[in-house]
Amino acid sequence: MVENIRARAAVAPRPVSIRHRGLPWLIGLVAMFFLIPVALAGSPTRPIGDRAGALLLMGGGDVTPEIAQRFVALGGGPHGHFVYIPTAAPDEEIVPADLAAWFRSRFGVDDVAILHTRDHARANTATFAAPLEAATGVWFGGGRQWRIADAYLGTRVEAALHHVLRRHGIVAGTSAGASMLASYLVRGAPEGNWILSSPGHERGFGLLPAAAVDQHVDRYGRETDIEPVLKRHKDLVGIGLDESTGITVIGGICTVLGSGRVILHDGKPNGALPYAVLHDGDRFDLATLAVSRRVETE
């Protein structure tokens, strides 16, 4: 028994002191201690915005039953409290009673408030923004982006939109309204929507962070229009939306709705195209831009 113990002791490794290995060994040990957590964490990810609540961005055109139903479902159902903001449209198209009737019919809801002003100071009052404090769903109509920006950026209305999301509601926009939900505003120039970037009109609400959103892509052949913006602003992801097609954004995951395409400028090789083309049911992760294709079931 004693001999076995002595034999094991004879072959046991000698303790190694840090002084024996020297300073390089100590530096390597410290570096490994700090680098392992970084490796485990993976690559840096992009911002995704509020995890609570949902966004819906649509590329203009007709609001399909599928998109309407999804918006209402995420806004608490047909008995939720909805707000329609038509400010992007020209004055002659904004008739509150007609818009409320259209909204109730199209979306199948009971309660909708029409919220509109051109007065920035009025938009910054608690009285004007009050309908948003109880809203479960907000819809921005189409028209021109600069009208929304001039009226609401930096006001109580903008702050209230973030509160809607934090209450697990939904904020949606179509056409100009979709572009306004992103952090970078494309086609915001009052002079014309052919101008992609306009100093003084380059900021959106930022509900969709580090992003620029173009719309009516199929109607006007805008698949690559957004690329000059992305070259100047390397932190942005570009998203193009066909008409009657959109994305929901929930917890940083974007899901395509509709019969058209979503163009994702992800900076990755996509065969012969400089962008990825997504269709109904496809998804992408805002944090990593990883794409998941819809699995067809029989």
- Quaternary structure of the protein: single chain
The second-level CATH architecture of the largest domain is 3-Layer(aba) Sandwich
How many extended strands? 14
Gross morphology is globular
CATH superfamily of the largest domain: Class I glutamine amidotransferase (GATase) domain
Q: How many strands, what sense, and barrel or not for the largest sheet?
A: 9 strands, mixed
Tally of discrete structural domains? 2
Structural class designation: alpha/beta
- End-to-end gap: 71 Å
Q: What value does the Rg take, in angstroms?
A: 26 Å
CATH fold name of the largest domain, please?
Rossmann fold
Strand order of the largest sheet: 3-2-4-5-1-9-10-13-14
In N-to-C order, the SSE pattern is: HHHEHEHEHHEHHEHEEHHEEEEEEE
How many helices in DSSP terms?
12
Question: What do you see in this structure?
Answer:
The chain is an alpha/beta fold and 298 residues long. It folds into two domains: 40 residues, no CATH class; 239 residues, Rossmann fold (3-Layer(aba) Sandwich). Helix content is 34%, strand content 21%. It contains twelve helices and 14 strands. The strands form two sheets. A nine-stranded mixed sheet has the order 3-2-4-5-1-9-10-13-14. Strand 2, helix 5 and strand 3 form a beta-alpha-beta unit. Helix 7 packs parallel to helix 9. The radius of gyration is 26 Å and the shape is globular. The N and C termini lie far apart (71 Å). The N terminus is likely disordered.
